[in-house]
Design goal:
Two copies of one chain form a homodimer. Chain A is an alpha/beta fold and 432 residues long. The first copy, chain A, folds into three domains: 3-25 and 235-364, Nitrogenase molybdenum iron protein domain (Rossmann fold), CATH 3.40.50.1980; 31-95 and 120-230, Nitrogenase molybdenum iron protein domain (Rossmann fold, 3-Layer(aba) Sandwich), CATH 3.40.50; 396-428, Single alpha-helices involved in coiled-coils or other helix-helix interfaces. The first copy, chain A, has helices at residues 12-21, 31-44, 46-57, 61-64, 70-79, 82-100, 139-152, 170-179, 189-198, 215-224, 249-260, 275-289, 295-305, 317-324, 336-342, 357-362, 398-414, 418-428; strands at 3-6, 107-110, 116-123, 126-130, 156-160, 183-185, 208-210, 229-230, 238-243, 267-272, 307-310, 328-332, 348-351, 388-395. Chain A has a six-stranded parallel β-sheet with strand order 1-11-10-9-12-13, sandwiched between helices. The longest helix of chain A has 19 residues, at 82-100.
């Protein structure tokens, strides 16, 4: 039975806080192993990649080659279901159109005293995209990571994907081609992260590495951070549904289960002001669970981390949701917009009964790489801004320097940085 | 003597690459110590802060109190040089005006098939600002970190600053007040980072921690990343000057030394097409060095990491500069704008002879927290975007779901996520 909480319960605040504080993922301590792999890749390059792929993925890259060939990608496309290919293509177009609106504008202006200031955005030269192998190789994730980089103007996009037992998912390769990925390499794990960060004979180094991975990949990304940029480290995923009596319980149950089927550490929470809806959703979840292919995973997630919270008034759901800072928030009520406006922390908000979260996973156009595990308190979903950087621009003439230079001199001296002060003063001295 | 490189030298590419690859900072391995301190602060809260402050800063916080009082701040202001206070106030106003232009705009639009999409920006609830103690306690850094957070709309800004031997810099406290810092605590080191991340009896936890610190602070920030957001980890600082024969060698020398005085691991590089300017700058550096209060530090930096590179044509400076991806780039040439336009990687660009980098450190208005150690290849300077996060918004009606739902169903099935597919399909079935 799923946890049922009532906001009227005198212990509610603590029970709810405990629900959020429950650690949903055991973090493996793999840092020591990863440090060794990274150092080895840095030293031995391709040779190390071949060794680790042999050991971990049971493939011989000295025969297959480290880089996936254009012929293999073309062949993979012919293996794909045409309907899935068409769906990927629609998804790509919608993601591209939405992300194009995120391109930041350069700015250059002159202020009241004549100082020119500016912000100029430029794309990263190169980006590495990590794609997990096996069942977690999601073609939609390839699009969600690669398309924003290409929209940003990144010229070189290198993808790494392990090929365990010699198999690469055809639809993943097709997605890479659709998204404009420039190079694909059949390596994974910490060794692939090392190759992207330091470079090998075959793989040129990149400026930033994005994409999800297991504990080894996450630890490797943390370690190479600084040498290259990295995206956020993804944690277990969650959905929170705010719904009132007007919502369809079967639809809500389906959404809670779509989240729960991801993995056993996913979390699905319903907050409602209607105890009857709470009951109906709970029953619908049980009914729908029984026929799901991934019912064991979904059932474990729902049993261990799922929750239904009943509040007195639907507005009371807002502060509770902000406490969760959910990756995905669905608002399915008679009048959702005031609730949407009041929410402060969420990765993405899905409004109304006809916007299941799965639409956002695939074809909505917005990104499905979103801040997990309460990090929406301080982080955003992936977007074009993750693939560009800003350069500040400053230009003074003699008059402007005379106006603000003395303050710079005073602060330089106050901080004990005399050479700073002198670098300004020397230009204000007519004999300088 | 400083390194002199000529781009005409057949070994130049390697020599230049070696110059950049030189590790300028020894990274201390303090991670194990830091892990212990963080765990202790998490467990014992204020008591741990009092113990570590006693041990590391030789102050008794059980008497002084952990929080700096409004009375202390008021008293500190009376100790400050009025000229320095006025300069700080000018700096604050200019930083505020420039950063106000960085506020991102919300967007909500309806696409061609009627899907509503949006991006909404909200400020972080709370931010912790780390300020180093001792000689590295720079009031200008307080402004550069705090003002953008306040411009972003952060309601609670908590500053931590160690008080070694009982001393707090009055101008640092004055800067905190000017910048609108809400709470100041006299703790530093890994323990202060732990307090901001996990909270103690006196210090409420924050959503993100920013600000520079020593190796312990950097290691602590890396460790708490995920629980809270962090800014980039700052490395040793650098300036690169591109100048032609029209530039004043004394001014350039002053700028190279302003960078070099920061610390012995700072790096100052001049690239010029004029060998006479190269000679004149080298001589001016030696001349100016002799009278600098921090001449030992500046001389060590210039000797160990400084360089003068002579190129045949000033345009050849651009790819070399991009290879450095300098934190600060000065362009002092007869016609700087084409060079500015061609540059791809730099934290900030200072244009023309009357824009010494020190203006940007204090009163230009742009931020002086910039990507160091080649990270301008993928990172931006600190700004308002570091204190806000984006929520995606998606809304479909029945018609839109009919249009794009089938593609979501196809992709869900292709990825083996049947519950995803069903959460869409159930809404397309008239009986659902």
């Amino acid at each position: 039975m799923v946890a049922r909480l009532s906001a009227a319960d005198p212990n509610f605040a603590k029970t709810f806080a405990d629900l959020l504080a429950t650690k949903r993922e055991v973090s493996e301590d793999v840092d020591h192993v990863v440090a060794g792999i990274l150092a080895d890749v840095r030293k031995r390059g391709d040779e190390a990649l071949i060794d680790y792929s042999h050991r971990f993925d049971r493939v011989d890259l000295s025969i297959l080659g480290i880089r996936v060939t254009p012929e293999e990608i073309a062949a993979a496309k012919t293996e794909c279901d045409p309907e899935a290919l068409a769906a990927l293509s629609l998804a790509r177009d919608r993601i591209e159109a939405h992300h194009a609106k995120q391109l930041p504008r350069d700015e250059r202006y002159v202020d009241l005293i004549g100082v020119e200031l500016g912000s100029r955005w430029t794309p990263l030269d190169s980006v590495g995209l990590y794609v997990p192998g096996g069942t977690a190789a999601y073609p939609s994730s390839v699009l969600m990571n690669a398309v924003p980089a290409k929209v940003a103007g990144v010229k070189r996009l290198a993808m790494v994907v392990p090929q365990p037992e010699g198999k690469l998912a055809p639809l993943v390769l097709a997605a890479a081609e659709l998204a404009g990925v420039d190079e694909v390499f059949r390596v994974g794990g910490a060794q692939a992260v090392g190759a992207l960060a330091y470079g090998t004979e075959t793989i040129a180094p990149v400026a930033k590495i994005v994409g999800p991975g297991n504990a080894y990949v996450a630890a490797a990304k943390r370690r190479v951070f600084g040498t290259v940029g990295i995206d956020m480290i993804a944690g277990p995923s969650e959905v929170l549904v705010i719904a009132d009596g007007t919502a369809n319980p079967d639809w809500i149950a389906a959404d809670l289960l779509a989240q729960a089927e991801h993995d056993a550490s996913a979390q699905s929470i319903l907050i409602t002001d209607d105890p009857d809806l709470a009951d109906a959703v709970e029953q619908a979840v049980e009914r729908q669970l029984s026929t799901l292919p991934r019912k064991d995973i979904a059932a474990a997630s729902w049993r261990d981390y799922g929750a239904i919270v009943v509040v007195k008034d639907i507005a009371a759901a807002v502060p509770l949701s902000d406490q969760v800072a959910p990756e995905h928030l669905e608002i399915i009520t008679a009048d959702p917009e005031p609730l949407v406006a009041a929410i402060r922390h969420a990765g993405a908000i899905f409004i109304g009964g006809h916007t299941p979260e799965a639409i956002g996973d695939y074809v909505g156009g917005s990104n499905h790489v979103l801040p997990t595990a309460r990090t929406a308190r301080f982080a955003s979903g992936l977007g074009v801004l993750d693939f560009v950087k800003r350069t500040s621009i400053l230009r003074c003439g003699p008059e402007q320097l005379r106006a603000i230079g003395p303050a710079a001199i005073a602060l330089g001296r106050a901080e004990g940085l005399e050479a700073h002060a002198r670098s300004v003063a020397i230009r204000m001295n007519p004999g300088g």
